Each structure stands twice: as C-alpha cells, then as structure tokens.
Amino acid sequence: MTFEQTGSLPTITAAQRRARLAARHLLLPATRTDDLAAMAESLLALHSTDPVTVFLSAMARMRTPSVAAVERALYDERRVVRHHAMRRTLWVAVPETMRRMHLTTTARYATVEHRRLVGMLEQNGIVDGEAWLTAAKRHVLEVLRTEGPMPARAVGLRVPELAHPLRLAVGKSYEGIQAAHTRVLLQLGFEGALVRTRPVGSWISGQYTWAAMDAWLPGGVTTPRGGDGTAWDERAAAAELTRVWLARFGPGTTTDLQWFMGWTATTTRRALADAEAVPVRLDDRSAAWVAPDDLDPVPEGEPWIAVLPGLDPTTMGWKERDWYLPEPARHPVHGAFDRNGNGGPTIWVDGRVVGGWAQTRDGEVRLIWFEEPRAARRRQVEARLAELREWVGPARFSVRFPAPHQRALLEPASEPDPGGAGSGRAR
C-alpha cells in the first residue's frame, strides 16, 4: 500500500503522485491519443503563450504525432479554442472549459485592462477615452464579422482611427510607441469578443489572425450551464474547475491551486469547499486535497520517459514542485525554471524531471542531465529526442520563456555543471 494512515488523514506518497501524473497526463505509451480535445481535457487545458508549446505538448502525447493533426483540431474542427485565462496567459481548451475559465478569471482581467486602456488613451491625447474605445471596438467587430479573420495589421488598415499612436512605458529605458489597434484587439480578446485563429506564417509563429468569437465558435463565450440547464455563476464555475483540476493534478495543496488558477485566497478556499475536496497529507507531512472519489491508490504502472516543451501543463501543474524536481533542477543558474516560475523544456523519467533540452539554430537538439539515469534509460531519452526532431522537421524555434539551463546549452563556450549534472547532444 502507498497510503499510510496518519491520524485521521490518509497520506499520499510522492511515488503515488508520480503514478497518477503518468496515467492522467497521458504520458504512458498506452494512454497516448490523437484526439486533441480529449488531451486538453486530460490536462484541463494546454498552455499556448508560447505557440510551440501546444504542438509539442500534443505530439508528446499522440500515438501518431503530427503538426497537421493539431492544426486541424484547432482551426478546422475547432474542437478546442485559444483564449486568455489563468494568470493572464493564453490557453487552449475545449469550449465548455474555456467558458468556465473566462467566467472565473478572464472576465476580471478584462475589467482591469479596460480601465487601464481608457487611461492610456487619455494620456495620449484622446479626450474621452471611454467613448473612443467603445466606437473602436464596434468598428473592429463590424470589420471582422463582414470580412472574416485577418491579421492585426489588416484590421488596423481597415479601421483608420486605430492608427492612433500610444506611448508605452514612458520614462523607462524600454519606452516605445505602439499603434492603438494592438491594444484594442487585446482588450476584445480579454472580453471574449475576439479569438486568435490561424497564425500568420507557420505553426511556430506567435502572430495570429483574429476573428469574431461568436463567428468562430457557435455561442461564443456564453455563460456555461449545468446539467439542469441553469446558468452558472462565477462561484459554480470555480467549483467545477476545482473538481477538474483535482482530478487531473491532485493531490495538490491550496497554494498549488491558487497559483494555477490565479485566484485570490478567498476564492480558492471557497472553491475547494464547494468542490467538496477531501483533505489528505503528503509524505512530507504537508496538507493537500484530492477529489471526493479519488482516495484509492492507483497502479504504479510501467517505467516511462517523456520529452516535454517549455510551459508544458505537466511541468507547470503545481507551484510546490520539490516532489518531482531533483535539487539540480531547482538551481537558479542551470535549473529547469526561471525566476518567475516558468518551466523550460524538460526530460522526465518515471515522474521526475531528470534533464532539460534545447534546439539550436541549426536544428541540433542538446540535452543536460540534472540527475543522470541508467544507460538504458538514457538511450530511450535520446531515441525520443530523435523522434522529436522528426516531428519538428525543418522548423527552428526559440522558447518564449527560456529556463536557465537553455542559456547554458545554447552557449557553446559555457560548461554547465548544475551540481554534477552532465550534458550531451541528440543529433
């Protein structure tokens, strides 16, 4: 048994947490799927702030990895949709999950960003920022509903008033000027009126075309409804998201859930209560939560490896990460996470981050070990990295939020040594 009774609360060990992670995050070969919507649901949502992450996260879990299959699910079948949500970052989720995310997170951001943009407009010479913004948003939606998806620059050309220049970061070393259309489109995205659709260029591009949300997705960002047809409020949506998160990432601490969702402490505690979360203890004695029907141990399964991209949902699923990060992976100079908690590309062996990797400009894939596995496991990792090169093909990409270990790998003169870890190359 991996559960041990400690007082009145069961204890869930790190080994049991790793077993749950492997099966529920589709990282075992037997659990892989080519269904992107099912995959997104198995992780609650896929990170999309870095455009590469969605594709590499998906292909790491697919039976038949394919860029075209991911694009088809995103842009043709539209079974998943891209939207700003938790922690103001972009995610890809199935529509119902996206609607709950919008109700519990994005709607709040939209209110704050609206006030900020009105103030910015008035600081840049527009007398009535509120009236100007209302008219500009209406014109943008008219254009996109009439002409269909188009890039931001094309929207700016069709709505001339959006060319109004905005000075940003005044007085800072990085002060600059940006046309208002960029901020107006971002605001409409936060409000759920617009959606980012196909990229301008290839799948690695972060410049997207924009569409009216209700034209792209039937119903748009409408209020989600429960099984009885009753419209959910923010509290009900938060409880449901909590249930799903616990089923995918549990056990997790209150700190983990609050960080993941970007909620206040009050909202987090209330959502755990509404979700009827069950208290447990972790084997380091800290308190955590699981879903009401998730107390039974799960089989630990076969050994496994995974090569995951930066910001992968598995890497980013918890704020308190020591149970899957060896000490060298926490190193501030050569580790797996930057100072803001963004995880870089990682190598997993049996539920632990044992290494990291990076793609060079010429397409070479380099790796670094935080905790070097046995020779047989290293060969499996190198084989998986070779498969990754085939998935990517000629594409060359940089990571939006590079982890410290990537800088070490991409500087040929450096000799990374995070507490005894070694480095190598997968050609």
User: Rough shape?
Assistant: globular
Strand content: 15-25%
**Main sheet characteristics:** 5 strands, antiparallel
**How far is the N terminus from the C terminus?**
42 Å
Q: Can you give the mean pLDDT? A: 91
Task: Give me the count of strands.
Answer: 17
The helical percent reads 25-40%
- Category from helices, strands and their pairing: alpha+beta
Kindly report the spatial arrangement of strands forming the biggest sheet.
Answer: 13-14-15-16-17
In short:
The protein is 39% helix and 17% strand. The chain has helices at residues 14-24, 36-42, 51-59, 67-76, 95-123, 129-147, 152-158, 180-190, 213-216, 234-249, 254-261, 265-274, 375-392, 404-410; strands spanning 3-6, 9-12, 46-47, 81-84, 90-93, 150-151, 165-168, 176-179, 194-199, 208-212, 278-282, 287-290, 305-308, 346-349, 352-359, 365-369, 423-426.
Explain this structure.
About 40% of the residues lie in helices and about 15% in strands. With about 425 residues, the chain is of the alpha+beta class. It has a domain of about 90 residues. Strands 13-14-15-16-17 form a 5-stranded antiparallel beta sheet. Helix 5 packs across helix 6. The longest helix is centred in the first third of the chain and has 29 residues.
